[in-house]
Structure formats: structure tokens, C-alpha cells
Automatic annotation (TrEMBL):
The keyword Transmembrane helix applies. This is DUF4396 domain-containing protein. It comes from the Bacteria. Residues 75-215 form the DUF4396 domain. Keywords: Membrane, Transmembrane, Transmembrane helix. The chain crosses the membrane at residues 6-24, 36-54, 111-134, 155-175, 187-210. Pfam families: DUF4396 (PF14342).
Length: 218
């Protein structure tokens, strides 16, 4: 039953990815990196990502000019989505690296996933943030935009990974006697859940960063 549910969730995620990617291709975002972020979010958020994309992300979305509390929440959501996209990309790249190398730390595959995926999630998170910031700071040196990206996204990435890694620990130690591997659909379904939880944990961090003026609302 769980395998069937996993396949259904993965198919929904892939279809959501394709729907958003196709629309982004026809209606490119003003901020180029979001052309990648929105489809990635479709993979783990599914139909909810489609709804948020057409409501808040697509150019000329109907609420784009509303400056009220809902719109502020939307800006924080998009900012958190930006972080989630970079982290998710890094995590997905990291999984096959650990699987193909057979890497372990202290005899644990989970700890190897933690190390590799955190490094890659942080790297891609900062790169994605840099690609968002630099076009707005072209009158300044690239290094300034890079420092701004680190300042804006470090805490966001860390909190995302905390949420994600917490769920991975639950999966590894509590839910399965033999945890699923990357060749099984259940593994990737658990990863989809991990991404959602990572997003939820990182949302308050993004709210705080934006409120303090450390990070620009998107």
C-alpha cells in the first residue's frame, strides 16, 4: 500500500513540475532563477505549488498589487520557496552521490546523507540567492552580492535542513526496520515529505529575516 501511495505522490509531483515548468517557459519570471525554483517546488508541494504559482508567482497574478497582510504572507512564502528550491536541488543531487559511493559516517548511511546533502543544499541555496540578489546590485561588485546572499540565506538554509533531517531521522530510526533506499519510490516519497517539513520549519526563519531587513521579501 505504501509503495502505491508513494508512486501516486511521485507522479503528482512530476506532473505538477511539468505543468509549472511549461507555464514558466511561456511566461518567464522577471527574476530568472525563479524559472527554476517554481517547478522544483511543484515536485514536493504538488497541486499546492501549482495554486501558489498561479496566485502569487506568475507574472500579472491577480494579487500582485495588493499591499495587505495576505500579500506580505505571500512575499514570505515566495522567499521561503526560493530557499526551499535551492535546498531541494542540493539534496536531490546529494542522494545519488551517497548511494553510488556507498559512503558512510560512523557506520551510518544517514549521517553521510546529512553531511553531503547539507553541504550541497547550502552551496546551491547561496548560489540561488546570489542569482536573485546580483541582478538588483549590478552597480556593486559581485563579492558584495555574494556576501549579501550568505547573510540572507544561511539561517534559512539551516532551518530548512533541520526540518528535513529531523524527518529523515524519524524515517530511519522509527518508521522502518529496514529504511527505504534511493531505488525505491518510498524513499522519494519520504523525501517529498521531508521537503515540505523543511519548508514549514524555515518559514518562521524567513519571516524573521525579512522583518529584520536582513533578507529582501520576494
Amino acid at each position: 500500500m505504501l509503495t502505491t501511495i508513494s508512486w501516486i505522490a511521485l507522479v503528482i509531483g512530476i506532473v505538477s513540475f511539468i505543468i509549472i515548468a511549461f507555464d514558466v517557459y511561456k511566461h518567464p519570471q522577471m527574476m530568472t532563477i525563479m524559472n527554476i525554483i517554481w517547478p522544483i517546488n511543484g515536485w514536493f508541494f504538488g497541486p499546492f505549488a501549482i495554486w501558489t504559482y498561479f496566485k502569487w508567482g506568475r507574472l500579472k497574478a491577480k494579487d500582485s498589487n495588493q499591499e495587505d497582510e495576505r500579500q506580505q504572507s505571500a512575499k514570505i512564502f515566495v522567499s521561503a520557496s526560493h530557499c526551499a528550491g535551492g535546498c531541494t536541488f542540493g539534496d536531490i543531487v546529494g542522494v545519488p552521490i551517497v548511494a553510488l559511493t556507498g559512503m558512510t559516517i560512523a557506520g551510518s548511511t544517514l549521517f553521510a546523507h546529512y553531511l553531503v546533502e547539507f553541504i550541497l543544499a547550502y552551496l546551491f541555496g547561496i548560489i540561488f540567492q546570489f542569482l536573485a540578489i546580483y541582478p538588483m546590485q549590478q552597480n556593486k561588485h559581485k563579492f558584495h552580492a555574494f556576501k549579501s546572499a550568505i547573510k540572507a540565506d544561511t539561517w534559512s538554509v539551516v532551518t530548512f535542513q533541520i526540518g528535513m533531517f529531523g524527518w529523515m531521522a524519524v524515517v530511519h530510526y522509527l518508521l522502518f526496520s529496514n529504511p527505504p533506499t534511493p531505488v525505491e519510490p518510498t524513499f522519494w516519497f519520504m523525501m517529498q515529505i521531508a521537503m515540505i517539513l523543511g519548508f514549514l520549519v524555515s518559514y518562521p526563519a524567513n519571516w524573521w529575516l525579512i522583518q529584520k531587513g536582513i533578507k529582501e521579501a520576494m
